[in-house]
Amino acid sequence: MNGTVEHIPSVEAVEECGRGHACGFCPVESECQLDKDRHNQSHVEQRLAKINWIIPVLANKGGVGKSTVSANLAVALAREGYAVGLADADIHGPNAARLFGLQDERVRVSERGVHAPNFDISGRGSLKVGSLAYFLEAADTPVVWRDAYKHDYIHHMLGSFDWGVLDFLVVDMPPGTGNELITLSEVLKGCNTSGLLVSSADAVALQDTLKAARYCRDTALPLLGLVENYAGTVCPHCGGEFEMFPRAPEVDHFQEQGIDTLARLPFTPAIGQGAAAGSPVAGDPDSPLSSLFSELAKTCRDALVQQQREMMS
Asked: What is the H or E stretch that residue 196 is in?
């Protein structure tokens, strides 16, 4: 199954001022007399109407590999022939640009909106990457924002970046269940949205990730399932396999809630090397890890298609 998943509504992006970005990026914003609140909101609505499925990748724990899983899932979906974007919502650690080798990109604004650079995948398509990193002066520039600014950025991320028509938008979420996730959940009400949980297999990370699962249940955000990261490794000397983090019994609580484990990803230098080089390993057809992410992408796709058919029946 290649190409567009099911159906994307056709929407004409017609704005009174003709600009495809929020008022904050406009050189005539100070003199403009148009309804600015409505203008900015309409951008979000128009962009979202052209995106079929949105997959927030989340956990309540930092350091479990959400960004890496997000990047490789997006690449794997694009390799299947889908139109894909990755939105970096991790405001304090916007790493998507680095993961795709786009860290030297700087923000560019046109009539169509904020430019989302393409990442090319070895002759197998491309995907769009939007990140706050393009706005920062340097890689070590800290983002010191109160919640009001975070709220605005989530709207800009969805409404001002020029995503075009997409089958999938993968959203790399920050740790926790705070303002960014709350704002995203509010903006995406009524959209085809299903979350993907990521956790390492140890008890502490799983316990925190259960809180993210509880958030999704309480807010009626559907979940695709759980990715267990750092799940075993192979000794580079003897070839023996062993568990980096022994699988904790807390993982059973996910099963009890109907949240299946969709993939168990090994702890391996190849994934880290791909991230450091700006070339996610899912894009390397010669890597055995590529097939793991390909299977994860297909599993997510099939679950999303089934959800959509149930919604439309």
From this structure: strand 195-200
* pLDDT per position as a tens digit, 91-141: 999 999 999 999 999 999 988 889 999 999 976 778 999 999 999 999 899
Which among 53, 23, 16, 8 has a CA at the least distance from the CA of 113? 23
User: Containing H/E element for 31?
Assistant: none
What number is the average pLDDT over the span 71-83?
96
The answer to whether residue 280 sits within a structural domain is yes
Nearest to 269 by CA among 296, 244, 233: 233
Checking if the pLDDT of 9 tops 90, the result is no
CA distance 266 to 257: 24
Distances (CA, A) of 248 to 226, 254, 261: 14, 12, 14
**Domain range holding 52?**
23-312
Sign of the torsion formed by the C-alpha atoms of 192, 170, 284 and 61: negative
Domain total for the chain? Answer: 1
Residue 304, domain CATH:
3.40.50.300
Beta bridge partner(s), residue 87: 130, 171
